Amino acid sequence: MTAKINILNLINFEEVNNLLEGFNQSTGFVTAILDLEGNVLSQSGWRQICTQFHRVNSATSKNCTVSDTVLANELGKGEKYHFYKCLNGLVDVAVPIIIKGEHVANLFSGQFFFEKPNRTFFEKQAKKYGFNKTEYLLALDNVPVVSKEKVKIAMDFLLNMTQLISEMTYQKLEQVQLNEALTKSEERFRDIIFSSADWVWEVDKDGKYTYSSQKSIDFFKVSEGEIIGKTPFDLMPEDEAKRVAAIFAEIVAKKEPIKDLENWNIGKNGELICLLTNGLPILNNEGELVGYRGIDKDITERKLFEQELIKAKERAEESDRLKSAFLANMSHEIRTPMNGILGFARLLKEPELTGEQQQEYIRVIEKSGARMLNMIHDIVSISKIESGITDVHPSETNINHQLQFVYDSLKLDAQSKNLNLLFNCELADKDSFIITDIEKLYGILTNLVKNAIKYTDTGAIEFGYTVKGEIIEFYIIDTGIGIAKERLDAIFERFIQADITDKMARQGAGLGLSIAKAYVTMLGGKIWVESKENVGSKFYFTIPRINGKVKEIVNSDSIKAEENKIKNLKILIADDDDASNQLLSIYVKDFAKEIITVITGREAIEKCKMNNDIDVVLMDIQMPDINGYEATRKIRKFNKNVIIIAQTAFALTGDKEKSIAAGCNDYISKPIQKGDLEIIIQKNLRN
Questions:
Q1: Fewest CB within 10 angstroms: 16, 294, 418, 585, which?
Q2: What is the pairing mode between strands 199-204 and 209-212?
Q3: Beta strand residue intervals within 288-419, DSSP E
Q4: Is pLDDT at 278 greater than 80 in this prediction?
């Protein structure tokens, strides 16, 4: 808060003294300006009797001060001017100086007589105060005697003079106050600009900066001085500058305000920043546009957040669309094979079918069943991946055997389309043992090779691997339809095959590649694709090379040679599904001397207690009463030698380990193939 202005300091006493000197010389009247405390601020032409006697002697000087004070108090009552005979015997007159309603000082005149003075009074006064009588009386004789009329004329002049002094001082006071207000306003404006997060600027009519706050340093790494003379478009990318310049030209032509104009600029580190511009036109007295004044707010974070929201919305909408299409495709993928299975199953009942027709119908049913099984497997796999319950179970495996197995499994699919299916192994069999998750590696390879077969109409498909230091890089190369460049990033997304607007979409759930990608990531590798439309695709994936033990390779032919040794087995089948019981009974009848079937775990335990000569138990895991795991544990308490093979329709990673932990010798997942079952039984009997 500023101190109160002392108005007396605003009076130009040098100019006032000149006026008072001129008044004294022309009229003979002495003058003085005194403040309200009696201090002399200015004086002109004072009488000798006052300067050399009355105001020098301490006693008479005190009389002068008392007289001045009494006179000032009388003026405070509102009189224009007031006459007073001072205590030293002379007549004084005073005019108040009032500035902006405030009585600040008095203009004095006097040191005269209205009539001839009483010399006796002054002789006594000379004696009383020790003045030199002769000199004192000589000074008295120099004091004029004037009439009241003449004094009033002089007082009118002095009134006008005080009015002039008041007006001059008042104008100066207003200017001081105005300057003070302007200084405060400028300080306030500077403080606001300095503390503001926004950038304040001015441009001329051509768009060149004429003023910039220091915020330009934060925005552009350009000082306020360096930015003068530039235009906003110098700070923008080329395309954005053209867009904003067109908008600005239209606004300027109409002399309109700039309202919420979003524009992208090149920031101080080269990154893009988004500013929100608002400004007002600056017009001269003739209404002509001379420029704009405004502020820019950094809204980059808000815009990036909005863009992320838009992308998230688009992703959600795309996900909903693809999932809807996926469900529609699933309906097709389920109904189509079911139509084949049920339809040809009904046709098998017709009595006049030839043997060749029956075999053809059975092949259709098998093919439809396999198609449905593949689809169900993919759905189960992706569900486990999305729910986070898929774990990695590393074990030792021979990758050459894995490639051979994939080839054997899919060569008929390739042959059905007249495609040449090839595979290559870089390592010798004895060196191809690694530690990895066998099921996931097999899942990756089969999904990628199946995908290649699906999208290849002519030519060949080749798959294999190369060793690159600490990693193994697998490849699957086809001569298929290829993939459009804009879809390369999308093909590994879930449900992308379900995009029914894709004219190249083919049979399947559209989950194979996303499953492969998820499995590769779990195994610590990477997957990518190179493709050209109408030429073909090359899929690559890597996994870490963690060497396993070098093992002697067992010839599979030796196992086949021992198959005929499976004879006269006593087999217990535990399964609560009648169809499964019936199917397994048919599978094993050729090498079983006795088949026992039960539908609960409790019955399986009792039958094993009653028949300690049972050779093999085919134990379903999911049964009422007591499940297969618990039944196996109880059987092992009294029979350590019987072969127990777990069978389940769950087919989840980890089921095999749980089965072995419960006491089973081996594990097989439904749907069970007769040949696979015979091999597992033979293997465990041999062991």
A1: 418
A2: antiparallel
A3: 289-298, 395-398
A4: yes
Contact between 548 and 433 under an 8 Å Cβ cutoff? The reply is yes
Query: N- to C-terminal Cα distance for the chain?
Result: 102
**One-letter identity of residue 622:** Q
Residue 464 is predicted with a pLDDT of 95
Q: How many CB atoms lie within 10 A of CB 239?
A: 9
CB atoms within 10 A of CB 495: 22
pTM over 0.85: no
Backbone torsions φ then ψ of 494, nearest 5 degrees: -65, 145
Q: How many CB atoms lie within 10 A of CB 458?
A: 10
Phi, psi of 287 (to 5 degrees): 80, 10
Phi/psi class of residue 31: alpha, beta or left (left: φ > 0; alpha: ψ in -120 to 50)? Answer: beta
Helix or strand or coil: residue 317?
Answer: helix
Helical axes 399-416 vs 438-454, angle rounded to 10°: 20
Mention every residue, 6+ apart, whose C-beta is less than 8 A from residue 475: 462, 463, 464, 465, 466, 538, 539, 540
Burial (CB count within 10 angstroms: exposed 0-12, middle 13-18, buried 19+), residue 78: exposed
Q: Which residues are within 8 A (CB) of 374 and not within 5 positions of it... i.e. 6 or more apart?
A: 450, 508
What values do phi and psi take at 445, rounded to 5? -65, -45
Considering only CA atoms, which of 448, 480, 441 is closest in space to residue 463? 448
Non-local (6+) Cβ contacts of 300 within 8 A are: 272, 273, 274
Asked if the peptide bond before residue 671 counts as cis, ω within 30 degrees of 0, the response is yes
Residues 6+ apart with CB under 8 A from 680: 645, 666, 668
What's the Cα-to-Cα distance from 384 to each of 378, 524, 557, 653, rounded to whole Å?
A: 10, 18, 37, 9
**Cβ count near 194 (within 10 Å):** 11
Cβ–Cβ contacts within 10 Å for residue 560, how many? 11
pLDDT, average across residues 377-399: 76
CB 214, CB 227: distance < 8 Å: no
Tell me, what's the pLDDT at 47? Answer: 87
Q: Which helix (H) or strand (E) holds 181?
A: helix 148-195
pLDDT tens-place string over residues 32-46: 888 877 778 878 888
Residue type, 220: F
**Cα separation, 660 vs 629, whole angstroms:** 9
pLDDT band of residue 559 (cuts 50, 70, 90) is very low
Burial (Cβ within 10 Å: 0-12, 13-18, ≥19) of residue 432: buried
CA atoms of 295 and 264, how far apart (whole Å) = 15
What order of strands is seen across the sheet that includes strand 536-544?
420-424, 460-468, 471-478, 536-544, 527-532
CA-based torsion, 400, 403, 408, 414: positive or negative: negative
CA angle 680, 682, 684 (to 5 degrees): 70
Condensed to tens digits (0 to 9), the pLDDT of residues 135-154 reads: 999 999 999 998 888 888 88
CA 426 to each of CA 421, 422, 430, 528: distance values in angstroms, whole numbers, following the listed order: 17, 14, 12, 21
Nearest to 28 by CA among 160, 154, 137, 140: 154
Q: Which helix (H) or strand (E) holds 209?
A: strand 209-212
Q: Which of 411, 581, 400 is nearest to 474 (CA)?
A: 400
> Is the distance from CB of 372 to CB of 334 less than 8 angstroms?
yes
Tell me if 106 sits within 8 A of 97, measured CB to CB: yes
Report the C-alpha dihedral over residues 373, 379, 384, 390, rounded to 10 degrees: 50
Assess whether pLDDT exceeds 50 at residue 3: no
